[in-house]
Amino acid sequence: GPCAIPRHRRSPVGQMVKSMISARTRDAVSTAAYDRLVDRYGEPAALARATAAEVARTIGDVTFADAKAVHLVAALRRIASTGDGFALSRLAGLSLGDALTWLERLPGVARKVSASTLNASTLRRPVMIVDTHVLRVLQRLGFAQRAADYRAASEAVTAAMPSWTGDDFLGFHIALKRLGQTLCRWDTPDCVACPLATDCPVGRRRLSA
To answer: In sequence order, what DSSP letters do the residues of 19-75 get, joined into one string?
Structure first.
């Protein structure tokens, strides 16, 4: 279905790269840009040796391509300097909190990217990925506070579902993101069509108005 989990998961470093270039960019655009990076550079080591300007040209149609390219090259060079290789196998052995912290020390990596690297990759770690759409839905549902950021909302959902698997969290992320893109839009939410309207303070208020 539309909320199905992708059959083919990327490696942790591949998922990190994809997530870093996808912010505020449509999925089709960021996926095509990711595919161009793979076609051009093949391996993370080659991408780490590239100049930010070259990378920016390769991903040129994503939003903020120049800044993303600078962060991407810097993050991959930092990983290279650890001497552990690009498999990021250390992340499987760390606690969830330590793995998130390790990733968030990399340039340009905040909670959305770190959670995506751990959850949507072959690691399948149980942590909630929160992007712009998911955060808006969680805020309107009253699950995340109005002032909550990606980190706070991710931690709240992750803590609330201690028995969920990584696949459970990814499926929930995909479903809420789709809801945010289609019905729970930022400008005019379509509460009449929303399956969560009766559980949602905003939906109940709008439907009773």
So the answer is: HHHHTTS-HHHHHHHHHHHHHHH-SHHHHHHS-HHHHHHHTTTSTTHHHHHHHHHHH
